[in-house]
Design a protein that fits this description.
The protein is an alpha+beta fold. It has two domains: 184 residues, Multidrug efflux transporter AcrB transmembrane domain (Multidrug efflux transporter AcrB transmembrane fold); 197 residues, Gyrase A, domain 2, CATH 3.30.1360. It is 49% helix and 22% strand. The protein is built from eleven helices and 15 strands. A four-stranded antiparallel sheet has the order 6-7-5-15. Strands 9-8-12-13 form a four-stranded antiparallel sheet. Strands 10-11-14 form a three-stranded antiparallel sheet. Strand 12 and strand 13 form a beta hairpin. Helix 8 crosses helix 11, helix 9 runs antiparallel to helix 10 and helix 9 packs parallel to helix 11. The protein is elongated.
């Protein structure tokens, strides 16, 4: 019964994956005798809301620079009005703010790099896709605008009249000297410390004295960052924003605040439209090569292992469906190295089944019943499967470099390869150990040899 429940969950998960993977619009045109039949099916929009944000799964995977081309921009950060000791922090804050702005395009695989040449602080931005260069320059090149607004209490208004819940205070990033992460000595938890200049301290003191108990919202480029509550008057210009911040989250907020506190104008010094180096023909050839490889693998598995090989192919089909489902949910940007990582993981998905089936044959040759040989095959092959895939996962982790360590790879396309390879290894373990095993238990639970 337990194997049947597991198999039922696998079928439901696979059906959900097919729904996500299926094209948005399907049009079929064919003739039956003298009649022409036109059939159209439009997949429902797959979207959901979470914590006030709306998420919509893409109909197609976004393509990287090598497949779709894009825009290459180089900006010069004008640091003349920034103190020397603050320039590095302002430069990093500027990079973080540009990351946030580029998200407005809804794109992945955007590459932003800081380049220092003497006293020149530069940022290079590579954006994949069919992007209007003027639109990108206008979005990225504007100076960050930070301002503080009071959250007004909810009030009854006339029908049809809209109420703006935020009220300007006149307190802007020009009055904020620095934001930084500090730690509570008693709890060890991080909090955000703000230091205002003399004029800003006076403004902040007037606001906090008058509006204790209300919330003061912080906006960067008209985007709400947070809205902490004013718990008491703050008269010395030293504010503390506490909460259940994780260290990474606190650092990101500080970078965004500093982008407005240390406003750095940007000057566009280079602009280039990048043509796709590969294109749709390369994608077709890559998937054609993958299809040929899968056919050869399938023929080998069926010829050598018979029905067991056919079950391995069913697991491989589930693997492919779930892979593309994850690519759309994350989403994964499609690049040629990413496709290579997927095709490599396809071959690895069969390796675990070969280890299991060969171990089963050894148990059967030693005279064990078929069902016991099946269970021992999965159990005793697990050590080899685990160790081999753990090594691949470690390599994928190093290549993906999730913590942006500067002594490791930071190239987006290498990260794309590492991501598809790492996801492939995890899914391969699931399909080989869980999916194929559940199918075999259900189909062969009475078989003995």
């Amino acid at each position: 019964m337990r194997a049947r429940r597991v198999l039922a969950l696998i079928v439901l998960l696979t059906a959900f994956g097919l729904l996500i993977d299926w094209p948005r619009d399907i049009n079929l045109h064919f003739r039956l005798g003298h009649h022409s039949v036109n059939w159209h099916w439009r997949k429902p929009e797959l979207a959901f809301s979470l914590a006030g944000h709306r998420f919509q799964l893409p109909d197609k995977l976004p393509k990287g620079l090598d497949l779709a081309g894009g825009v290459h921009l180089v900006f010069q950060a004008k640091m003349e009005k920034i103190a020397a000791k603050d320039r590095l922090a302002a430069w990093r804050a500027l990079e973080e703010n540009i990351h946030q702005r580029v998200d407005a395009f809804g794109l992945g695989e955007v590459a932003i790099r800081r380049v220092k040449e003497g006293n020149n602080y530069r940022l290079t931005v590579d954006i994949p896709g069919n992007i209007n260069p003027q639109q990108a320059v206008a979005l990225i090149g504007k100076t960050a605008q930070l301002d503080f607004r009071l959250v007004t209490p909810v009030a009854t208004v006339a029908a049809g009249q809209k109420q703006n819940p935020f009220r300007a205070t006149g307190l802007t990033g020009a009055y904020l000297e620095r934001a930084r992460v500090e730690f509570n000595r008693q709890t060890g938890k991080p909090y955000i410390a703000l230091t205002f200049n003399l004029a800003g301290a006076k403004k902040f003191a007037a606001i906090t004295k008058k509006h204790v108990g209300q919330r003061l919202a912080v906006f960067l480029d008209k985007r709400l960052l947070m809205a902490p509550e004013i718990k008491e008057p703050i008269l010395n210009g030293q504010a503390m924003i506490s909460g259940n911040f994780k260290l990474k989250e606190a650092k990101e907020i500080v970078s965004q605040l500093n982008a407005g506190a240390l406003p750095v104008p940007l000057e566009l010094i280079e602009q280039e439209k990048i043509s796709p180096t590969l294109g749709s023909a390369s994608i077709r050839q890559a998937f054609r090569a993958g299809a040929v490889g899968v056919l050869i693998e399938g023929a080998f598995m069926v010829l050598v292992y018979g029905w067991l090989g056919f079950l391995a192919l069913l697991g491989l089909a589930v693997y492919g469906i779930l892979s593309f489902m994850l690519y759309k949910i994350l989403p994964v940007t499609l690049t040629m190295p990413g496709i290579a990582g997927f095709l490599l993981s396809l071959g690895m998905a069969v390796d675990a089944n070969i280890l299991i089936f060969e171990r089963m044959r050894e148990e059967l040759r030693s005279g064990k019943p078929w069902r016991l040989a099946m269970e021992l095959g999965f159990g005793r092959a697990w050590d080899s499967i685990r160790d081999a895939n753990a090594c691949t996962l470690i390599t994928s982790f190093v290549l993906f470099n999730p913590f942006d360590w500067h002594f490791l790879n930071t190239a987006g396309m290498v990260r794309g390869f590492a991501l598809t390879l790492g996801l492939g290894v995890l899914l391969e373990l699931f399909t080989s150990i869980v999916v194929v095993r559940a199918i075999m238990r259900v189909l062969y639970h009475r078989r003995e040899k």
